[in-house]
Amino acid sequence: MPHRFHGSWKLIRYEAIHEDGSVTLPLGEEPQGLLIYTPQGMMSGQAARRVADETAKGPLDNYIAYFGTFTVDEDAQEVVHRVEGSAYRNWVGTEQRRGFAFSGNRMTLTAAVKKTGALGKLTWERLA
């Protein structure tokens, strides 16, 4: 199964689905991002607003980045990112677990957003 992840992925959409069913776009209408998984088990991901939100409290409200290793937990249907370095220093040394689904050349990753209680849903498209 890990081979399905291998390659480079472009961020298409990042949604936050809140408990009341409302949807917000944490990185705006046209986010930018790149996610890379290697056959050697390494990963690196970045996501950013195309246009910075001037009302953001800090630069990390406009940008997410981390890297490390990954494995696939097929039983839980999760990809597990073991963070070695991150713009969020408190993520270093943690496991970031993401639910996943594939459809054609797209992959959707999901995770609970602790800060807001929302479900983060990121849609990625495989680069040729």
If you had to describe this structure to a student in words, what would you say it looks like?
It is a single chain. The protein has one domain (about 1-125): Beta Barrel (Lipocalin), CATH 2.40.128.490. It contains no helices and nine strands. The protein has strands spanning about 5-15, 25, 30-35, 40-50, 65-75, 80-85, 95-105, 105-115, 120-125. The chain is globular, with a radius of gyration of 14 Å. The mean pLDDT is about 95.
Keywords:
Lipocalin, 128 residues, 8-stranded antiparallel beta barrel
CATH superfamily: Uncharacterised protein PF14869 family, DUF4488
Strand neighbour order, sheet with most strands = 1-3-4-5-6-7-8-9
Helix content: under 10%
Number of strands: 9
- Biggest pleated-sheet summary: 8 strands, antiparallel, barrel
Total domain count: 1
Structural class estimated from helices and strands: mainly beta
Measured by DSSP, the beta-strand proportion falls in over 45%
The CATH architecture can be given as: Beta Barrel
The backbone outline, from C-alpha atoms, is: globular
Unreliable segments of 5+ consecutive residues: none
Mean pLDDT: 93
What is the rounded Rg?
Answer: 14 Å
**CATH class descriptor name:** Mainly Beta
Number of helices: 0
CATH topology: Lipocalin
The CA-CA distance between the termini, in Å, is: 19 Å
Q: H/E element string? A: EEEEEEEEE
